[in-house]
Structures are given as structure tokens and as C-alpha cells.
Design goal:
Elements (H helix, E strand, L loop, with lengths): L4 H13 L7 H7 L6 E6 L5 E5 H17 L7 E5 L4 H12 L3 E4 L6 H11 L3 E4 L20 E4 L11 E2 H5 L16 E6 L9 E5 L2 H11 L9 E3 L6 H14 L3 E4 L5 H10 L4 E4 L1 H9 L12 E4 L6 H10 L4 E7 L3 E5 L14 E5 L5 E4 L13 E6 L15 H6 L7 E10 L5 E6 L4 E3 L2 E3 L1 H9 L4 E11 L3 E10 L7 H14 L8 E4 L13 H20 L1
Parallel strand pairs: 1-11, 3-4, 3-5, 5-6, 6-7, 10-12, 12-13, 13-14, 24-25
Antiparallel strand pairs: 1-2, 8-9, 14-15, 15-16, 16-20, 17-18, 18-19, 19-20, 21-22, 23-24
Helix pairs in contact: 1-7, 2-4, 3-4, 7-8
Length: 556
Amino acid sequence: MVVNEKINLRVSELINKYSNPSNSVEQLLCDQYPSNKVAYKIINENMEEYDLTYGELKTHSTLIANGLTKRGIGKGDRIATLMGKSKEYLITLLAIWRIGAVHVPLFTAFSTPAIALRVNGSNAKIVFCDHKQLSKLKPSDDFVPHSELDVITTASFDQTPNWAERWEDLLSTDVPIKKEVNLDPDAAIIHIFTSGTTGEPKGVSLPVKALACIEAYAEFAYDLRQTDIFWNAADPGWAYGLYCGILATLTTGTPAILFEGGFSAQATMDIIEEHKVTNFAAAPTVYRSLRADRVELSAGHKLRCLSSAGEPLTPEINEWAQSFFGLSVHDHYGQTETSMVINNHHHPELKTNLRDGSMGRVMPGWSATVLKNNEDIPEQPGVPGRVAFIVNESPFCWFAGYIGNPKKSAEKFSKDGKYYLTGDTGSIDENGYFYFSTRDDDVIIMAGYRIGPFEVESALSTHEAVAECAVIATPDNVRGEVIEAFVVLMPEAKKSDQLTEELQRWVKTNFAAHAYPRHITYIEKLPKTPSGKIQRFVLREQRKSEISRELNNGED
């Protein structure tokens, strides 16, 4: 991709900006902006709104930071958040970074075992949580916290149990205002976990220098401007929502929407219209839901940019978006380990004609290619292979390996260290457009959320009726993919609709509310390799053939 000198200069500026060894994260993400500047327009479930300014964000996060300092929490310590989108969540994030601590995001749909794995796996010293999430953190057989763990909640006084503390009590600290904490470019600010496929989720450390890539993405892909009203509807408990919904706006100072309510097509449309959103990003499932629910434009809209990420964007979404909004949705691609790297950019100097099925071209600051399947050399244009990034030609590349997992870290790079291997397959055409093909790591992407089959299988396997199981993705018109479980029952167990419902509830309780299998198929045995490894791809191919036959029969 040919990039003009102005863009190249901007890449260099961003790298230099976040390579300063004297950087303080609070200055980069908050304190540099005028105190009266709106950081977020927070909208609650009743559609009531509140403007959170950078001055308020600074004042309140400093108080929380002082309270944490008083407790002996400081540079490098892990602090988790099990919080919905709210003012308190934003303040807590900034407080964590003010003291040089590391944020561990926890998705609110996670059940207790999944939370315990991440809290104990990161050795978090504190978990901040909402009232709704408190029950998941109560010490139990499923949650045995390490001895140093404290729970701090935004719940009211009468809702706070004796094993937790109140968030508001940290605001009344008498600790003197602390000094700025300077962080090295390689110092971690986020400790996030990937979805597990054949083992437990892996820890990824996002360093200060990764903010260069995130700010570049905000500029190049979103084309964020100070005049924009931006809304990324993704949940910040996941990489895309956190990187590109929270950090993207804080690095650029762009006013943004934070909606505390759950998703509904009508609420989404109401916010876009009433709050004059100009720049909107969401997973494809949001656009599919808007189309399926036949929402209407009552007062028109001010949108100029639509973006999508999390799963491949299918052409029919853009056909609908063009007729409904008069705009095309730009597909973007990235990973927890890289942030966003291949995009259909909105920036006027990078914007090109969209091509059906393409996730775009590589973002400036990165160099990407497609490698042969069995050899670490580039594949021919148009031929599917392994999507990879050339490390020494990618100044925005920040991933150095998984935390405490050298074996899995080594698998993400070619033997000579030249290439970062995404684990995804695709192709590239002669003009540099990338086309996603499939994943070779079994990860399921449902409604934009990456779900590792291993964790779902692990939860299912603990049920007394389950002998063994395997989990795959099944196509779905709204969510893109949904989870289907193939279950081998214990000899004494009998398949039934009641058992299916029980197993679904079991996964909700023992893993995550959003990641239960929508379909459960009972089979006599699972396909396996001679060594005993489950062959999920065989199940996927079987299901694909069945769907194809059903479609063909329907046409007849």
C-alpha cells in the first residue's frame, strides 16, 4: 500500500509520542485536555443523560487513586474491574492508570469460575464491581480468592456485604495528592485474556507504546475528529470495546457516548438520532439486528462514518446500510494481541472503494502478508494462506508474547521471528486488499465476542450427565455464529429437552451467560485423531454439509 508522506510522518509522530520514558498515562489520556471539555456523554437505561468532563474525570479519579495509594497499591499491581459501562467505571480506569497499576478487564457476562480464573491468573489485588456482580465474587468453592484480594463495590451501604468495601469510601481519603507516575513504553497498562481454544485463556500485556497503534486506528480507520460525536457500542470487557471504544477516544479527546443500558435495536437508533452521533462502530450483529427489527429513521441522522469489527462483514449488511443510512459500513480486522491492523479506512487520504468480502488494506505502521500454509514464504495473490505481519516492518507491533506462557508465545511467531502469525487464514489480491477465509484456532465469534470452545467444553464436562463434548460454531442470521455443542452422555443419562435446557443453564452458571450453546446435539462418540485429540473440523464439515442439504431441499 502506497502511503503519502503526511501519513508516514504521522506514524512517526505517534511512535515518538508514546516512546517517551517519562510518559504518564493520566496525562496522555486525561489531564492534557481542558477541564471543561466533555469526555463522555453517559446515557442511562431510562435515556437520561449526564456529561462527564475531563475535569470531573481528573478530580474523581485522583481521589480514587489516592485511596488506592493509601492501601499500598501501586506501580505494576493488577486491579480488575467487573463493571458495566458507567461513570464509576471510567473513573476507576483512570485511577488505576494514575498510580501506574495494570487494569484487568472482566466481562460482566462471565460466571464465577471464569472470573476466578482471570482474577487468580493475573494475581489481581483488587476487584472493583457493580452491585449486580457482587454475588459472583462471594468466596465459595467456585471462587477461592487469594489472601491479598479485596473487593470494592459501587453498591449502596445497605447492599454491601461484610466481605466487600464501598467504592465511595475511597473518595473520602485524606491522602495528599500523589505525584505523577512515569511509565516506560514497555510497561503494561492492561492485562487482558484471550479466548482459550485448547487450553486456558492466555494473558496479553498491553504496554504504553501500544497506545500509538490505538490512536492511529482512531485517526486512520475511524477518522475521528474533534467535531465528532463518537459511539462504539462494543462492551469494554472485551478487547475491541476497551481498545477502540475507551482508549481510542481518550487518546484523541473525541467526545463519546457511553450507554449504560443493554442492547436493543430501537434504543440504538434512538441514541444515534437524538444525540446526533456522527461516527458509529459496532459488531455486525448490531447492524443485522437493526435490519431484522425494521427500525425506522424518524428524525434523520448526522452519521458520516459507520464501522464494524469482531467478525467478517457480509455484503447484504452494506446493501441494507446504503438504503437505510445512505452510508456503507467499513469492515475492520484486528486481534487482542495486535489491536486493529487491517481496515477499510475512513480517513480521506486512506479511503478507497469498498470491495465485497474484503476486510480492507493494512493500516499504516503495519506490514502484512499471506504466507503459504506449509512454508514461511509469501503466497501468490488470490491464493488462501496464513495471514501474518512482518515484525521488523511494523513499527506499531507491540505484542511480545503471552504472560508466563513461552510455549504458546513461540507458536505466534515464525521460527526466525520474522512473522507474527495471526492464526487466521485468508488471501490478498494484487491491490493489497485482504479477504478473511477462516480461523485455524477454533475460536467462535458470536455477536462480535470471541469465545474459546475450551472454556465452554470445560464447563459442560463438569455436569454429571456429560461424558465428553466438543463445541463448534454454527451459522446464524443475526449473531453471525452461535455455539453448538456435541455431547456424549454418560451411560445412565438420557437425552431430553429438559436435559438440554439444564446443560444450557449449567454453562451460563459455570462460564458465561452469553456463551451457552444455542444448540445441543447428542452423539454416540466424537471424531478423534489416533492420539485422541478431538477433531472439531470434522464436526464443522458435517454441520456445513447438513445445512447445505437443507438449503438445497428448500429450493426444490
